[in-house]
Amino acid sequence: MKVGLKSGGGRQSAAGRWSDKGRRGFSGGGARAPEALELSPIFSKRSSQEDLDSPSGLLMDNSQRKGGLIPVSPKTPRSSDRSSRGANDTSSNSNSKHDKDKGVNIQVIVRCRPLNDDEVSNTPVVISCNEQRREISAVQNIANKQIDKTFTFDKVFGPSSLQNDLFEQAVSPIVREVLEGYNCTIFAYGQTGTGKTYTMEGGAVNAKNGEFPNDAGVIPRSIRQIFDKLEAQNSEYSMKVSFLELYNEEITDLLAPEEPRLLEDKSKKPIALMEDGKGGVIVRGLEEEIVATTGEIYRILEKGSSKRRTAETLLNKQSSRSHSIFSITIHMKECTPEGEEMIKCGRLNLVDLAGSENISRSGARDNRAREAGEINKSLLTLGRVINALVDHSGHVPYRDSKLTRLLRDSLGGKTKTCIVATISPSIHCLEETLNTLDYAHRAKNIKNKPEVNQKMMKSALIKDLYSEIDRLKQELYAAREKNGIYIPKDWFVQDEALKKAMSEKLESLEVELEVRDKRQLDETEHSLSDLEQRYKQANLIIKEKEYLISNLLQYDEEHIEIALALRIELEDAAEDFYGVCSKIERKNKIEDGNKMILQRFHSHLTEQLGLLHSTVSTSLTQQENHLKQMEEEVRSFVSAKIKTTKELHEWLERLKDVYGNGIRTMDGFAGELKQKSLSTFGKLNSQILMHYSGLEYCLKNITQEGNQLLNELQTTLSMMEDKVVSFTRQQHEVGSYY
Ligand SMILES: Nc1ncnc2c1ncn2[C@@H]1O[C@H](COP(=O)(O)OP(=O)(O)OP(=O)(O)O)[C@@H](O)[C@H]1O
Predict the structure, then answer these.
(1) pLDDT, tens digit (0-9, with 9 covering 90-100), for 381-429
(2) Is it the case that residue 366 has pLDDT exceeding 80?
(3) Coiled coil located at which positions (predicted)?
(4) Hey, what's the torsion of the CAs at 170, 173, 175, 177, to 10 degrees?
């Protein structure tokens, strides 16, 4: 076996340079670490409360057991440690306190594989990758349903990306952190046949000559980087690896020596996963091989990988049917400025999950279908754990599957974690691809609280190694002495005492459990009867409520009917109202018009009446004047006639006198003349009378006409007034009606 810490300068050297005793203690090459290595939390120096609060993980540490190798516990690096680190490292250290307090998100990267030979000619591509924008888009129209989703991740690698691109950009910084003393996990998740194993393992490295193919995956590249870095630093280190497989909820050790009997029935010996009582898990009996060269580690990887259970499915010719975890633990020597030698420890877990599988599409039947069911079940639990962590649920169901128990520290713990989600660009995988992308996108929100593992003093490590060597020696001695299973006597005594104490504890626990069960049963019965009561009461209340509801529904119906009738009435009333309003409006308009007309008429009438009045009075005065004039004329005419008659009489008298005698002679003539004058006079008189009566008639007529006109005017006026009065009354009536 290669010895614990190894000098970076001499990969082939068998022993670490820093301790002769240490070198002596380890046996020769090819030997393994002891049979019962346990997985226990690496943070062994935490208080029990811390252990409860902060789940520890998959990391192996043997300090808990007799003869354990190197106990390490988390601590923030000292300032002296920082000074020796590179630029990148400084940033990681300065962030460590921040990381510790707030937590850092899990890094999620997505890799889309290219179409394979079978797909390339006839399979539409529905996934597009934008590496610059770190976006993956799925665009497709299925059954008139447009799918157009875009997801952003920490990094995106498209179908043409190379293994080296992914490693350099995403994994190399994580490996550097492992060498800084962090525990880091990289796991590949995705649908079956999307390139998880290709990404994690890739093409095999030639262990003999170290030939490195272009398609070598994350694991061999990480190994190479670790060795290169340690050698470049010329540091002393030791490295050990373990490789386990989780198949159908059973853990098997891929590095365990092959036992002929087990090979025959082709089954593998399952190993137990145990709680360490401090929140961590122990994989009891898991082999940890100490490695000193890259060649050794590649050989181990190749051997372990070949033992993984694979099968041909419709989706992948060599489909991994199990989850695998390859772990590399490195112990590195560091010197403090005070010259004290310290050992720091970093661990890298490389997880290749089995593919999530659509059983009908993968063509899995019988055992294969059961297998796929188990795979899906454990991945489902992983999904539930991720959801619980993202939603900050009080309970995270780590315990529901072995996979989540093993990955506990990597999900929500103190490990730095990176998920590589693998997808296919094919239209046929769209549903699963969207599931993977959803899953991965949710996982981005998980926060871990990474902490650097506490460094330990070299002297303490040497002490631990000595006790481990002593224990191994005793074991070896006992095994050489006898056949079968033998252990040293004091171990046997210790084990017996332990067994006794355990069985006593078991008994007391059983009693306690019984009491607790009984109490719980009583409580359950009590709460059951309580529930029954409450159920009955609830039933009664429900019935009451139902009755009330039916009544309410009836009332509601009536109310609805009334409301409908009211609504109709209201609508009618509203219509009427609008009609009345428009009528009032029209009436108001008419009234306004009427008022205007009335006013105009009134003013016109007054004007006309004034005019008429003045005309009539003018006409009357004119007629009166005319009459007076005519009377005067008639009078003057009559007086003139009388005067003329008188004068004529006088003339005649004079004539009688003048012509005395002649009168008599002329008497006849005079008589005649008299006669003539009398008739003339009569004629004149009748003419005057005729004129007089004509004038009188004319005056009478004029007076009559004037009176008649006046009467008519008065009648029209009174009629108009009557009309005005009756109109005003009508208006009042209409106003009071509305
Ligand atoms: N990025 C890639 N470039 C080229 N080939 C790839 C890539 N990813 C996967 N492949 C090829 O696709 C096939 C399936 O890959 P792989 O076995 O790694 O898938 P998987 O996800 O591990 O499947 P399963 O879950 O069934 O084990 C392999 O032949 C592999 O070489």
Answers:
(1) 888 898 888 888 878 888 888 889 998 888 888 899 999 999 999 998 8
(2) no
(3) 462-548
(4) -140
Quote the CA–CA distance of 32 and 124 in Å, as a whole number: 51
375, HSE (Cβ side, Cα atoms, 13 Å): 28
CA angle 526–529–534, rounded 5-degree value:
120
Mutational pocket test of ligand 1: of 198, 305, 309, the residue with most ligand atoms within 8 Å of the beta carbon: 198
Range of the domain at 589: 508-737
Measured in angstroms, how far is the CA atom of residue 360 from the centroid of ligand 1? 20
Predicted pLDDT at 6: 41
- Residue whose Cα lies nearest atom 14 of ligand 1: it is 193
Q: Would 477 be classed as within a structural domain? A: no
* Residue 291 β-bridge partners: 239
Nearest to 413 by CA among 431, 433, 396: 396
Of the residues 466, 483, 518, the one at which a domain ends:
466
Question: Which of the listed residues 113, 163, 165 should we mutate to test ligand 1's pocket, taking the one with most ligand atoms within 8 A of CB?
Answer: 113
* Residues 69 and 202 occupy one common structural domain: yes
First to last CA, the chain: 118
DSSP 422-475: EE--BGGGHHHHHHHHHHHHHHTT-EE---PEEPEEHHHHHHHHHHHHHHHHHH
Contact predicate 157/112, CB 8 Å: yes
Distance 197 CA to ligand 1 centre (A): 6
- Name the binding residues for ATP: 190-197
Atom of ligand 1 nearest to the CA of 201: 18
| Chosen domain end from 407, 438, 466 | 466
Ligand 1 atom closest to the Cα of residue 313 is 26
Q: Report the C-alpha gap between 124 and 403 in whole angstroms.
A: 35
